[in-house]
Specification:
By secondary structure, the chain is of the alpha+beta class. It is built from twelve helices and 21 strands. Helix 4 (about 75-85) packs across helix 9 (about 290-300). Bound molecules: flavin mononucleotide.
């Protein structure tokens, strides 16, 4: 879907705040997005650019579920089905993203946001990167990119990611940074599936998309994306990247990262730039949510009746996982924890709950832990395993960390007090209010 059309539909439903006064891409837009989060915002007059900017569009599961017209609990099954039934998108030679082909490449004309005082420069943080390898074909993922010139950026490429492996195999790789996408493309880009799977096929299974050929590189790109920055990334040509805020909302270190040289910029006629606050809820949901189906499947494959998985925002939407099961055997809780750690190697703490607990409620999760958990029986400790590179408390250099699982399910046979919350009577208030 064209992002602008979605924004228009939000305007019709009065679900987006429009800022009509002039605003700077330097700190001010990020400040407003942070203040109004999770309300979507459209900035109509950006001081330094002719283009409009939108942000906070998909900050939580509810906003994403609304986009697809489903309930939040249906997201995991929907995403699972899309991964299992991926299908090639229709091709078009009239991509909306190529309505305008800029004659020159000048990144200064774009509203690339400078988010925080500490940042090393203006950053693209919502860029979905299409790349390809002669053997594996196309890949989609996210890479933040810091502007270092009118036609040059430096992009953060985490070691081990598909794109990094493409760079290692080929030295230099053609790319298309696509900015301004709706959730089918954003979520597909954030999934971690087997190398060789073109995530655009997952996007297409989530909601039909079209693809079109990029102008200067041999890549098929989402036709409806708002802006496309085509060019080449070089493994050996590096530049300092950062500082920038990472997923944990802490400041990432400065590293030498690959340079991205731009060849062409194309965009829709009325293109809207997509802002995404680093480390905040939209970044978190896009990072954590696509990992939930993988965990769900691992737990299900152990024969557990798993009902839902939630990678919680408080745990940086990466390090903490809450799982709801229908417990049938006494060791289902511990088995769930083992399977979930196998399904998400970056997880540091995982909790498993019974079906009566609302895993989206911090208070209910804490209540279940307070009333159903005993450390001598229900604790799983995984001493010094490789964890997430994002965790500041993991051992520097090795990322070794101690992982911990908490079985917060009740025992099947109650010996003492009941584990259930006492229910108060339900009354019809109309009977008692008024004269
Ligand atoms: C908003 C967002 C920003 C991200 N930024 C980066 C980044 O700058 N560098 C990086 O290597 N991975 C980044 N990631 C993570 C990868 O895109 C993600 O793990 C990827 O889907 C893994 O893909 P792969 O299995 O195809 O390698 C980001 C993810 C999200 C959701």
């Amino acid at each position: 879907m064209i992002l602008e059309n979605y924004i228009i539909s939000l305007q019709k439903q009065d679900k987006i705040t429009t800022i009509k006064r002039e605003i700077s891409k330097h700190l001010e837009i990020a400040g407003v997005l942070k203040t109004l989060e999770p309300t979507p915002v459209l900035f109509e007059r950006v001081k330094e650019s002719e283009f409009r900017v939108a942000g906070n569009l998909f900050c939580n599961k509810k906003q994403i579920a609304d986009y697809f017209g489903i309930r939040a609990e249906e997201i995991i099954p929907t995403l699972t089905r899309a991964i299992e039934n991926k299908s090639p998108p229709e091709q078009t030679d009239k991509g909306a993203c190529q309505e305008v082909i800029e004659d020159t490449v000048d990144l200064d004309k774009l509203p690339i946001l400078f988010h925080n005082e500490i940042d090393g420069g203006p950053y693209i943080s919502s860029g979905v990167v299409v790349s390809a390898d002669p053997e594996y074909g196309q890949n989609l993922d996210f890479h933040r990119a810091m502007q270092i010139g009118k036609d040059k950026m430096v992009t953060r490429v985490v070691r081990g990611r598909d794109f990094y492996n493409f760079l290692k195999r080929n030295g230099e790789v053609d790319v298309a940074f696509c900015i301004g996408n709706t959730p089918e493309v954003l979520i597909a880009a954030a999934t971690s599936v087997d190398t060789g799977i073109d995530e655009l096929e997952i996007a297409n299974a989530l909601r039909g998309i079209k693809v079109t050929k990029a102008k200067t590189v041999d890549l098929m790109i989402p036709a409806d994306t708002e802006f496309v920055l085509e060019g080449r990334v070089f493994l050996e040509e590096t530049h300092s990247e950062g500082p920038f805020i990472d997923l944990t909302e802490t400041v990432d270190v400065i590293r030498q990262e690959p340079v991205f040289e731009l060849k062409r910029i194309t965009h829709r006629k009325t293109a809207i730039w997509q802002g995404l606050l680093p480390g905040r809820s939209e970044h978190k949901i896009l990072m954590g949510m696509p990992r939930e189906p993988t965990i769900f499947k691992k737990v299900k494959d152990r024969g557990i009746d798993v009902l839902d998985v939630y990678i919680t925002p408080g745990g940086a939407s990466w390090l903490h996982v809450a799982i709801k099961i229908k417990k049938k055997n006494e060791d289902d809780g511990i088995q769930t924890l083992e399977a979930a750690f196998a399904g998400h190697k970056s997880a540091k703490h995982i909790w498993v709950y019974d079906e009566d607990i609302d895993i989206y409620s911090d208070e209910e999760r804490e209540w279940a832990m307070a009333t159903r958990f005993q450390a001598d029986d229900d604790l799983l400790i995984k001493d010094r395993e490789t964890g997430s590179s994002l965790d500041p408390s993991a051992e520097a250099g090795t990322n070794l960390t101690t992982k911990c699982g908490f079985d917060c399910t009740k025992v099947l046979e109650t010996k003492g007090k009941s584990f259930d919350k006492a229910k108060f009577p339900e009354v019809d208030m109309k009977k008692f209010l008024g004269e």
